[in-house]
Amino acid sequence: MSRLILLRHGQSQWNLENRFTGWVDVDLTAEGEAQARRGGELIAEAGFKPSVLFTSVLTRAMRTGDMALESAGLKDVEVIKDWRLNERHYGGLTGLDKAETAAKHGEDQVKVWRRSYDVPPPPLDADSEYSFANDPRYVGKDIPNTESLKTTLDRVQPYWDAEIEPRLKGGEDVMIAAHGNSLRAIVKLLFGLSDEEIIDVEIPTSNPLDVELDANLKPVSARYLDASRAKPLPQIA
């Protein structure tokens, strides 16, 4: 039986400012750093010792993973970074204030962009200050200009299949420090959720989700290590 911990990054500066972040590389706030350290303490208390940490190439996820490992007293853990674990790309909403966007486009429309499974926001303009076309992390990659949760899953799943799943099937314990939507994509895969069921799944910041998996990588148990900040979890068949 393998264990998997999913850890959403701590509060970022743009979380604090209530802005659509997506692929913009903002850092953690002091509160986010404290959340990451607390996540590590909870991981240590749970006796979890991963052999590998997978994370995105965005600072807020990488630092959350690093700080959690340090706080847990875990050394010499292999760290693998890949853009396919990035947050969902918010397209033309990137950088906008969420409340102002709702006032402009209507709360119902913004709710569709944010929470629907397969409706992406408008694409990011090619000349936007937030364009990632020349970012060296993505040179030669087929990067999107907007994403829904569905298309986020479309890029996460091949990476899961090729890189993460074999480690778990080999009996290793794995930790993933990533983002709300890339982690929701993994939850959809693991728990076999429908397109409708995943809409209501929310991952709290820096609260480790501890999942025990059988030999076929089916969840046999799942719990948030901080029960006081837990969100509802899918039922396990």
Helices, strands, pairings?
Layout: E1 2-8, H1 13-16, H2 30-45, E2 52-55, H3 59-71, E3 78-81, H4 98-105, H5 107-115, H6 149-169, E4 174-178, H7 180-191, E5 209-213, E6 219-224
Parallel strand pairs: 1-4, 2-3, 2-4
Antiparallel strand pairs: 1-5, 5-6
Pathway: Carbohydrate degradation; glycolysis; pyruvate from D-glyceraldehyde 3-phosphate: step 3/5
Protein name: 2,3-bisphosphoglycerate-dependent phosphoglycerate mutase
EC number: 5.4.2.11
Condensed summary:
Pathway: Carbohydrate degradation; glycolysis; pyruvate from D-glyceraldehyde 3-phosphate: step 3/5. This protein is an alpha/beta fold and 237 residues long. It has helices at 13-16, 30-45, 59-71, 98-105, 107-115, 149-169, 180-191, and strands at 2-8, 52-55, 78-81, 174-178, 209-213, 219-224.
Strand content: 5-15%
Q: How does the major sheet shape up?
A: 6 strands, mixed
SSE ordering: EHHEHEHHHEHEE
> Could you list the spans in which at least 5 consecutive residues all have pLDDT below 50?
none
Helix content: 25-40%
- Taken together, the total number of domains comes to 1
Radius of gyration: 17 Å
Per DSSP E runs of 2 or more residues, the count of β-strands stands at 6
Identify the overall geometry: globular
